[in-house]
TrEMBL record:
<feature type="transmembrane region" description="Helical">
    <location>
        <begin position="133"/>
        <end position="159"/>
    </location>
</feature>
<feature type="transmembrane region" description="Helical">
    <location>
        <begin position="243"/>
        <end position="264"/>
    </location>
</feature>
<feature type="transmembrane region" description="Helical">
    <location>
        <begin position="270"/>
        <end position="288"/>
    </location>
</feature>
<feature type="transmembrane region" description="Helical">
    <location>
        <begin position="215"/>
        <end position="236"/>
    </location>
</feature>
<protein>
    <submittedName>
        <fullName>ABC transporter permease</fullName>
    </submittedName>
</protein>
<dbReference type="InterPro" id="IPR001851">
    <property type="entry name" value="ABC_transp_permease"/>
</dbReference>
<feature type="transmembrane region" description="Helical">
    <location>
        <begin position="190"/>
        <end position="209"/>
    </location>
</feature>
<feature type="transmembrane region" description="Helical">
    <location>
        <begin position="6"/>
        <end position="26"/>
    </location>
</feature>
<feature type="transmembrane region" description="Helical">
    <location>
        <begin position="63"/>
        <end position="87"/>
    </location>
</feature>
<feature type="transmembrane region" description="Helical">
    <location>
        <begin position="94"/>
        <end position="113"/>
    </location>
</feature>
<dbReference type="Pfam" id="PF02653">
    <property type="entry name" value="BPD_transp_2"/>
</dbReference>
<dbReference type="GO" id="GO:0022857">
    <property type="term" value="F:transmembrane transporter activity"/>
</dbReference>
<keyword id="KW-1003">Cell membrane</keyword>
<keyword id="KW-0812">Transmembrane</keyword>
<dbReference type="GO" id="GO:0005886">
    <property type="term" value="C:plasma membrane"/>
</dbReference>
<keyword id="KW-1133">Transmembrane helix</keyword>
<feature type="transmembrane region" description="Helical">
    <location>
        <begin position="38"/>
        <end position="57"/>
    </location>
</feature>
Amino acid sequence: MNPDVLVAVFLTVITASTPLLLAALGELVTERAGVLNLGVEGMMLMGAVVGFAVTLTTGQWGLGVLAAALAGAGLALVFGVLTLTLVANQVATGLALTIFGIGVSSLIGAGFVGKPLPPLPRLAVPGLSDLPVVGRLLFGQDLLVYLSLVMTGVVAFVLNRTRIGLVLRAVGQSDVSAHAIGYPVIRIRYGAVLFGGVMSGLAGAYLSLAYTPLWVQEMTAGRGWIALAIVVFAAWRPGRALVGAYLFGGITILQLYAQGAGWLPVPSQIFSMLPYLATILVLVIISAGPWRRRLDAPACLGKPFRPAA
C-alpha cells in the first residue's frame, strides 16, 4: 500500500478512536468508584452541541472545549444528585440521562444545523511534523488527541500508584468498609461522576469540532454505548481501554473502507453494523468461559449506598 494512503488510514483511525477513548476513560473512573452511569451518550451529545455553539459564536476553540467539558459535567452532576443524594436507581437514571441529553441537545442545536466550522487546529511540532510517515501521525495531531493519550497514562498512574486511586478503588470495592474507616464515600463518588462527565463532554466536543466539524442531531451515533462496552472489554484498566478504543475505531474505519472499495456485494447497511456487531461479539466472548474470570468489576458497581446516620 502507498505510504501516503497508509498514513491517511491511520490518521482516520486516530480520529475515530479518540472520542471513544476519552469517554471510556471517564466512565472507567466512574465505575471504579462503584457508580454505573449509562448516560455517556447523552453527556457526549451535550458536550458536542455546547462546544460547537460556543466555538461558532465566539471563534475561540479553547472556550468551546471548556464549555463542552462543563456541559458534560453539568449533566453528570444531575445524575449524581439523583443517584448519590436521592439514591435513585442508577440504571434507570442513566438511561433517562441519555434520553434527556438527546432531546436537549437537539433543542439547543436546532439553529446550528448545517453550519460549517473549521476543524480543531493541529499542533504541529516544528521539524518533527515534517518527518515522513511518523511526522503526521505523532507530531501533527490536535490537542484532544494528545489529551486522550496523556489522560490514559494519568488515569492509570492515579488509580494504581497514588493514595487517591487506592481510596477510589476501595470505595468501589466496599463502600461500607470505606465509610466505616472514615472515607467520604459520597463525595468521592461525586468526584468520579463529575470526572466522567468532563471526559464525555470532551469526547462530544471532539466529534463536533474535529471529527466532523459541524453539528448534526444525534451525531454520536451510539459511540457512548461503545465506550461503555470498551470499559468492560478493558476489565476496568486504562491501558486496555486504549487498546479497545483503537480496536473499535479501526473497525469503524474498516467498514467505511469496505463500503468504498466494494469488497463484497452486500448492502451498505450491513457494513455500517460492523462496529456494533463487534461490540456485542466481544461482550459475549469476555462474559463467558475462561475470559469471565479475568474480569475485575468493582464489587459495588451500580449498588446504591446510603451512609449510616
